[in-house]
Amino acid sequence: MKKIYIGILSILSLAFLSGCSDFLNPDSREKVDAGDSDEVYTPEMFINGTYGMFTDWDYAFSYLAITDMVSDNSDKGSSPGDPGGDKQLFDDLTYTSTAGSLESMWKRWYKTIGRATQAIEYTESYGLTDAAYKNRLIGEAKFLRALCYFYLVRGWGDIPIQDKDLSTRAPKEEVYAYIEQDLLDAIDVLPAKNEYASKDLGRATKGAAQGLLSKVYLYQSKWQQAYDYATTVANSGIYGLEADYGTVWRASTENGIESLFEIQARGESIAHGVQQYSQTQGARGETGWGWGFNTPSQNLLDAFNAAGDVVRRDATIIFRNSTLWDGRVVGATENPMYNYKAYSSANAGSDDTDKNIRMLRMAEVYLIQAEAANELGKTSEALTALNKVRTRVKLANVTTTNKDDLRKAIWNERRLELAMEHDRWADLIRTGQAAEAMAKAGKTFVVGKHELFPIPNKQILEVPTITQNPGW
Amino acid sequence: MKENKSIPKTGVWKKYFLFLFFTFSVGLLGAFAQTKVSGTVTDASKEPLPGVSVVVKGTTNGTITDIDGKYTINAQQSDVLEFSFLGMKNQSVTVGGRTTINVILEDDTHLLTETVVIGYGTAKKADLTGSIGSVTADVIMKQPALSPVQSVQGKLPGVSIISNDAPGSTPSIAIRGLGTALGGRDPLYVVDGFPVDDIRNISSSDILSMDILKDASSASIYGLRAANGVVLITTKKGREGAAKISVESYVGIKSILKKVKMANASQYIEYFNQNQDVLGAYHLAPASEQAYNTDWYDELIKTAITTNNVVSLSGGGKNVDYFVSYNFYDEGGILDGQNYQRSTIRNNNTYKFFNDRLKFSQNMNISFSNEDIKPYGAFNEAYRQSPLVPTKYANGRYGASFVNKTTGVVGYEGNTGDEIGKLNSIGNPLLTLDNANQRRKTLTIQGGIEGEFKLTDFLKVNSRFGATKYYSKDRQFTDVRNAWLNADPRRTDSEFDALKEANPSVTTYANNSLRLEDIETYRWVWEGFLTFNKKFDKHTIDAVAGLSREKIGVGDITTLKGYDVPAKSQYWNIGMASDAYTNEVSQYSYTPRTLASYFGRIQYNFDNKYYVTGTIRRDGSSTFREGGDYWATFPSFGLGWTISNEDFMSNVKFLDYLKLRGNWGKLGNQNVPINVSQILTNPGSSNNNYNYVFGSDQGLVFGSAFGTPAVPMSWEVTREWGLGTDFTLFDNRLSGNFDYYNKTNTNAILKVTPTLNSPYEDNFYAHGAKVRNSGIEAALAWSDKFGDGWTYEIGVNYSHNTNKVVSVVPTYDGATGGSLADGEITKRLQKGQPIYGWWMLEADGIWQNQAEIDDPNNAKKGSPKPGHIRYKDQNGDGEIDDRDKKFFGSYLPTYNYGIHLGLGYKNFDFSIDGYGVGGNKIYNGLKHGRIDGGENITYDTYKNRWRGEGTSNSNPGANRDSYASSYFLESGAFFRVNNITLGYTFNDLVFSGSRLRLYFTAQNPFIITGYSGFSPEISGYSTDPTISNGDPSGTAGIELAAYPSTRNFIFGVNLSF
Prior knowledge:
Oligomer: heterodimer
Strand content of chain A: 5-15%
CATH superfamily of the domain at 112-239 in chain B: TonB-dependent receptor, plug domain
Largest interface: A-B, 79 and 67 residues
Low-confidence stretches of chain A: none
Low-confidence stretches of chain B: 1-33
Radius of gyration of chain B: 33 Å
Number of strands of chain B: 54
C-alpha cells in the first residue's frame, strides 16, 4: 500500500519537474511577441525619426529666443503684453537658469542625440546586407548627432557626453573632438548630394558634413582645418550661390545649388514642417497671418542701411505696409518689421508650412573660407571668397589687405548675409564682439557670464553633480 | 495539525470556552467496571480549572473537569491519570487505590507551548529563530472589520497598518517598513497553504489564526514573494467530537469619527469678500440676504449600519472532521447608497484513513460580494462647496455655484442685465453621489485539497493542489442628461433634445451611458513536500523539502460601453443601447504568470538550547522571460540560544525563559513592473516629431523612435539581518520580546523620468535605488489575577522604523511625486531621505505689507500680495524656485504603538485597546487647494486668517497663492482608542455546555490628534482596483478625497452549543 502512494507522488512530482522551461514561458496574450509581429521597423525609420526631431515645435519658438532674440539682430516682437513665456527675458538679456527656452533646446538636442545613437545601434545590429546603405544611414545619424552636440557645446561650453557620462560635464575640447570624429566618420560614408536618389534629397550629405566640420573648426580657431574643409566644399563643384539673394529662403530654391543642409518641410496635406515656424514669426495684426515674434531690430535695419545693403535688407525684413514678392499686401501690422526668411508664400500662417529652414548654405561656407584664409594670411583668397558673397547682393568688393580690417569686414558680412538665420548670437560670442554689440543694443552683457548659457535648473536638480556655468 | 494554538492567554471566560471545547472533543467514557475516582483540579492560586483533560494513560478513557474544576472518572488502581491543560504543565498521578485525587497544575510558559504556522509546517514558538507575529481568532473577532488585517492594527509590533474605513476596502499594510515604491508593496497572503492576492473573500470568523512572518529567515521559505513579509492564514477545521454549532451576530452603527467644522454662510461671505477686495471684484451680499446656509457634511454624511451574521457547524468522527460555515456581512457606508455585502460559505473537511496515517484535507470557500460604489470625490466637494449654495433649488434641480454678481446674491436668478457668474468650479456633492451608479459583483471560488501520508513515524509526504476562480462584473450607469440638466438649473429638457438632435452620434448628448466590465481570472498552485522530524538523544531535526508550481492570472477582461439604454435599471443591457451611437467593445486575455520553485528548510536544536535554522528557496518566474533571467535563489539562516535552559541559569528564579535569536536572509519581490519597450510611430500624422519630409517632391516619410529603453528588469532583492530576544519573567506573568532588524531592498525599482540630457523620452522602470528600513520592535505583556476572581492583563508594543533611501543611481535621483489636483508636487525621491519624502517650499511668515514685498532684499515667488505666505529662500539667491524646496520628513510614521488593557471578573470581560503613530506628516490637500477663490474654508481657516498688517504671521489671508508649502503639512501623529469592549458570558444556559456571550464594543470611540483634516490615516486607497494601494509616489499621506475615519458602535451576541 505504502509503495503505491510513494509511487503516485513520485510520478506526480516528476511530471511537474520535467518541462519546467516551457512552464516558465506562458504564451503572451496581451501583447504580440516581437517574433509574431507583422510590423517591421527598418533602420531607416529610426534615422527618419532622428531627422523628425528637427521639425519639433521647439525650433519654432525656443530656438528663436536663444539664437536671435537674445542678439542684437531681433526683438521679441508680438504685442508688448505677450511675453511669449520667457522670450522677453532673452530680448532683455535677463534670462536665468529656469528659462523654459533654454531647457527646451537643451533637452531637444540631447533627445535628438539619443535618437541618433539608438538609430546607429539599431542599424548596426539589424543585419543590413547592403554595407554602403547601412554605412550611409549611420553616417546620417552621426551628422545629426554632431550638429546637436555643436549647438550644445557652443551654447553651454563643457557639457555631458551622453553615451559616456550623464552626470559630469566633459571639457568642451573633448566634446569638440567627439563632434569632429562623428563628422569625419560621416564624411567617409555619406554620398555626395548628387549621388542621392531624387526621393532622398534632403538627407545629410558628404558636403553637409564637410561644411559643418569647417564651421566646427572655425569655432575652435583651427584655421587651417576650417579653411581646408571649406575649400573642399567650394571646390567640389556641387555647390554655388543662387543668383538672386531674395530667393535663397523661398520654396523655389529648396535643396538647390546653395543648400548644404536644411530642415525639410511640406505644405500640402499632410503638411509637415517645423511646427508653426512660419506662424510664430508671421506678421501680426488684422492684416497679418501670425504671432509676430522674433522681429528684426532697428539695430539690424541700421546695420543694413549703414552698409548700403538694400538687397539683403529687403530680402530679410518684411516692412509694415509693404507688398511681398508674391504680391501679398502686408497692411498695417502691429509691429513695423517681421522676419521675411520665415515667410511661406504658399502656406503663410498655417501650422505646418512648406518652409525649409536653411541650416547651412554655401554663402556661409565662403565666409568661413574667407575668415580662415585671412587668419592664415591668405589675404587674396580671403578677399575672393568674401567678395563672391558681396557681388551677388550688388555690393562693392572689399579690398583691404589689413588683417584686422578684413576680419571685421568678414564678421559684418556674416551678420548681414546670415541675418535672422539663427546664427547671430553664437557668432557674437565666438568672435568676442558680444559685449560691445550688446552695449550698442542697450543691453547689459556681463563679461565672464553671458558667454555661456546657464545649465537648465531642472537638469541640475535632476543631476546635482552637474555644475553651473560661472556667474549663473 | 498540532494542538489547537488558538487557546487564549488568560481571562476566566476563556477557560470556560476551553471547557466547552473539550467537552465535545473528548470521547465518552469507557465501559469498564472500575473504581470511581473524583477530585478537583486547581491552579497554583487555588482557582478551580475547568476544562482540564483527565485521561487514563494508554487508553481513550477520559473526561474533562467541569466549571468548578471537578471531575469523575473510572479507573483501576494501577492506572495513571494524566491531567493536561494548555498553558499548564502536564501532570501524571497513579491512582493507587485513592478515590479522591486533587491536583494543582502549574503554569507553563506560553512561549514553550504556543504553536505557530511557519509555512510548509508548524513549529513551537520556543523553537523559532526568526520573528513571527501571531494573532488568534479572538483578537481578530474582537475588532470586527472586513479585512482581518485591519482587525489587528496595533497588535503586532513591526506591522504597520493604515486602516481604511470605506466599505469593502482593504487597509494598506507594511511589514517592517516600506522598501519598494513600484514593486508590489503588499505582503504575500497564504491561506491554508495557498497563495492568494486578496483576502476579502474570507470571513474573519472562519480564521483560526493569522501568523505574520516578519523577518527574512522566516519568510525566505516563500522566497520570491516574501520581501514584504508573509501573512499566513489558517482557517478553522472540525475536531473529533460531537457536533458543535456556533452563532455569531452583531450590528454596528457607524458615523464619522472626526468632523471638521466648516465656515458657515456669514463667515464664508466675509472671507470671500475680503478676497474680492484684493482682486477688485464684486462682493457677496450679507448672509441675511442670502437664501441658503448649507452644511454640506451634514447633508452628505449619513449614519451607516453594519451587520454580520455567522453560523458554523463543526465536529468530527474517527474518519471525517468537518467544519461548515455561512457568513453574511453587510456594511453600509457613510455616503448615501454606499454599501458592501458579502456572503461566504466555507467547508473544510478532513478525511482520515489507516489510523490517521493518510489524511485528505479539503477546503472550499465560496464568496459573493455585491458592492455599490460611490466616488470619494464627494468628500472633497463637500469641503469646498460654498454654504450659500443650496442642495437643491426650488425647481428640484441640484444646487450649483451660480451667483448674481450684480446683486451679490447666490443663485441663478436676477433681473435682466444682471451678471450671472459662478462662485467656484466645484460640483454639488449630492449630485455627484446621485449620478454615480456603480455596482460591482464578484464571485470567488477558492478551494484546495491536500493529501498527507505518513511514510514512517518521522517522515511524511504532502501534496496539495489549490485554485481560485474569480469573476467580477462591474456596471456603471451614467445619466448624462441628468448631469447636463443639473449643471445649470435654467436648462430644460427641450434644450437637451435640441442639442441631441443637432449632434447625433455625439455621446456628450446621449441620454445616458452604460459601461459593463467583466473580469474572469483563474490561478492554481500545486505543491509537494517531504517532512522529516526526528529526535536522536538531545538532537532534534525538523526538515522539509519540496517543490511548487503556480500559474497566476489566467483570464480575460471584457469592457462594453453603450449609450441611450432605457432609463430603468432592469433594462440596462448593452443590447438595448441606441444604434445612433457606436458601442465600444474591448476584450483581451491576460498573459499568465508562472512560478516554479524548490525549497528546503532544516531546523536543528541541541537539547532545546542551541538552535540553527537554514532555509533555501530557488524560484523561477515567467515575469522575467523577456530577459531570459528566470531564476534566483533566496537563502537564509537563523541562530537561537535559549539561555534559560542552561544549567547555570537554574538559580535565576525570576527568569522563566530567555532566548536570543539572530538571523540573516535574502528575499525577493517578483511583483514588479516590466518595461514594455515601446517603439513610437505615428504614420500619417503631421503633428509629431517622428515623421519627416524627403525628396524633390517633398514626400512625407514615416519614422520611429524608441520611447522607452528596454532596460531589463529583475527581482527586487531584499537583504535583511536581525537580532531578537524573547523572555518571560516572574512566574510567567511578564512576557515580552525585543527585536532589531535591518532590511535593505538592494535594487528597488523606480519609475524613472529621464533626465533632460538622457537619450530617453518616456518614463521607464529601472532598478535604481537602495532603500533601507531599520528599526526595533518591542512588546511586553503582564497578566495576573487578584482578589476573588479578578484577572487582568496589560500589554504594550512599540516599534520604531527608519526608512531611508541609501543610494540612488545618480541620474535617477530626484523623481518627484505626490501630485496634487492642481499640479503642484509635494514629494521627491532622494538619497538620504525617506522614500518619496515631503519636498516643498518652507512657509516663512506672511507678507504684511506691500513695502515688504517691494523690498528687493526679500526673495519672493511670483507676485505676492500682502496676506500671502512668504517662502524661505533656502539658498539665499534672492529667488524662490525649486532650489528652495526642502525635505520635511515623510508620511510614513517612524513609530507606532499599541496598548491593551484587559480585565475579567467572573463572567464579565472588559478590555480597552489603543493605537497610535507618530513621526509622520500629513499634507492637508483639502486646505491647500483653492482653484478660483470661491471654495469654502474651515472655520479655523476663517478664524485664524491674516486680516491686515500685524494680525497674523502664520496664517495667510483670504487672498492667497496656491503653492505647495510646509504651511499645509501637519503632524500626522495620533492616538486612537481602537476598541472598548464589555462582555458578559452565560454558561450552561438552557443546555449544559452552551455558552452565550453578549458584548458591546465601541470601535474608534476617541482620537487624539493635532491634524486639522478628517483623518490622519490616509492609505491612498482607491475604489479602482487597477490603482494600487498606498503608492508612495502617489497621494498616500495627502488628504484630498480620502475616506474619513469612522466610529462604530457594535452590539453582538455569540452563542455556541
